[in-house]
Amino acid sequence: MSNYKFYDQVNKAFDKAAKYTRFDQGLLAQIKACNAVLRIAFPLEKDDGSIEVIHGWRVQHSHHKLPTKGGIRYSLTVNEDETMALAALMTYKCAVVDVPFGGAKGGIRINKSDYSDAELERITRRFTFELYKKSFIGPGIDVPAPDYGTSAREMGWILDTYRQFSSELNAEGCVTGKPLNQGGIRGRTEATGRGVFFGIEEAVSNKDDMKILGLEEGIEGKTFVVQGLGNVGYHAAKYFIDAGAIMVGVAEIDGSIYNKKGIDLAKLLEYKMESKGIIGFPGTKTLKNNSAVLEAECDILVPAALENQLTTKNATKIKAKIIAEAANGPTSTEAHDIIKNRGALIIPDNYLNAGGVTVSYFEWLKNIQHVRFGRMGKRFEEESYKKILRVIETISDRKFTEKEIGILAKGAGEAELVDSGLKDTMINSYNQINELRKKHDVDLRTAAFISAINKLGVIYEQMGIFP
Ligand code: NAD
Q: Where are the domains of the chain?
């Protein structure tokens, strides 16, 4: 097992930022503390009839707002320290983007590919049952979501299991990232990658920052490398490419590949599905191992796999001018300083990958409101726009075609509203932390922590301490 102390790393970044806030040590210690930690071991009956003990955790970092919220991870890296660190990051992330939840995280220590689908379903359902029994799940208590190694399928199993025990009206809100036909929301699957894109789009529109980095403004023409072509990495890469960026390198479990002229994402994904890896993808150079591409020439490096990837071992060799932290905790505290001192811009995880929890918040709202966003207003909006277009036609010579009317008079449905809410959140939050960066002359990570501590500190002060 690794000696990496992820929770310490998160707390170091917190302490660095806390110096710029007005709160006393006791209150800061309360904000930092994990409020509840659940450790579970339960038996899995495997397909061949044998029994295996499965280990899982759920950590609710902060109860200052309820429900608590955070993903469930299936990975061999899962342990108590990792889950505490990720839960803490969720609290700060929610505060940074003004999502009214406390932070939480869960994890099961398994390598997903070692289990059949039926076994994974039994593990997920039993884990949900354990959470339910201990009051660690519920629409007003604690709401899981997908993370590394889990997806909408597992969230569907969680909901179905929860429903076996609970007949409460808002049961659908006990988990987010669900399939659409089980109360999910349009745009959740791609939300984290989409949020990464909006965050970077905002960062590269900053004239002064781009000048310092020696880069043009805008995404178009920028080269990037992505580590981890899973949910977050794939979607971030897709939106970068759609906006004209060039993917020059990719890392996956089996190794890393590079082509300075660009790699076709859609074809690479097909290749990865067929050959269960990326090595050998036509037209690309295979590098010596799966971390080598992190050191490749590029404008933007997008770590989108796991924590502790940019460390003192490779930090001096990282050439990217912008580090887009799509994963949680990809950069160690020491590596952060080395990369920052070299002059690169680090867009921190506790802001940049908040798109997932933002859209999860929209999904939860949809579930407790029992109505799809846009259902009430879309047609009314369209009729109103049509009336305006008709008035324009009567007072001018302009005649609109049916196609133009279709485009100009389109009302906002769920997908459009989710995308708009996500974009607004990512832009507003970037500007909030950028202001704090300027005010205190700190980096963006410290600024994001200052933003979170300021918001949390005020709530804790108002709450007082219940005996
Ligand atoms: P995922 O399981 O969908 O994908 C992760 C990918 O990374 C997989 O394809 C895996 O093979 C690859 N990978 C693992 N180790 C690697 C390595 N050493 N080198 C290269 N590739 C490697 O997971 P995800 O949901 O995309 O999550 C990725 C990261 O983003 C995690 O840190 C997670 O906590 C964070 N995150 C996810 C969400 C979400 O909505 N899913 C939200 C916020 C943050």
A: 35-184, 185-374+412-452
Instruction: Report CA(149)–ligand 1 centroid distance (Å).
Output: 7
Give residue 1's pLDDT: 52
- Whether the pLDDT of residue 2 is over 80: the answer is no
Q: What number does the ligand 1 atom closest to the CA of 326 have?
A: 30
Above pLDDT 70, what percent of the chain?
99
The per-residue pLDDT for range 145-204, each reduced to its tens digit, is 999 999 999 999 999 999 999 999 999 999 999 999 999 999 999 999 999 999 999 999
How much distance in Å is there from the Cα of 232 to the middle of ligand 1?
A: 6
User: Average pLDDT for residues 435-447, to the nearest whole number?
Assistant: 98
Q: Do domains 35-184 and 185-374+412-452 have the same CATH topology?
A: yes
Question: What's the number of CA atoms in the CB half-sphere (13 Å) around residue 188?
Answer: 25
Domain 185-374+412-452 class in CATH? alpha beta
pLDDT at site 294: 98
**How deeply is 277 buried, as exposed, middle or buried, from its count of CB atoms within 10 A (0-12, 13-18, 19+)?**
middle
Give the predicted TM-score (pTM) of the model. 0.97
State the distance between the two ends of the chain, measured CA to CA, in whole angstroms. Answer: 40
Find out whether 251 and 293 touch, Cβ atoms under 8 Å.
Answer: yes
Annotation marks residue 105 as catalytic: yes
**Which residue of the set 93, 105, 222, 321 is catalytic?**
105
**Residue owning the nearest CA to atom 10 of ligand 1:** 228
Residue 419 and residue 190: Cα distance in Å, rounded?
10
CA–centroid distance, residue 305 to ligand 1 (Å): 4
Is the shortest distance between the CB of 354 and ligand 1 below 6 Å? no
Neighbouring CB atoms inside 10 A of 168's CB total: 14
Q: What CA dihedral angle connects 160, 164, 168 and 174, to 10 degrees?
A: -40
Fold entry, domain 35-184: Rossmann fold (3.40.50)
CB within 8 A of 228, min separation 6: which ones?
A: 251, 252, 303, 304, 305, 306, 327
Pocket test for ligand 1, best of 148, 358, 360 (most atoms within 8 A of CB): 148
Return all residues near 438 (Cβ < 8 A) that are at least 6 apart.
none
Q: In angstroms, rounded to a whole number, what is the distance separating the alpha carbons of residues 179 and 182?
A: 5
DSSP code of residue 280: T
Nearest ligand 1 atom, CA 330: 32
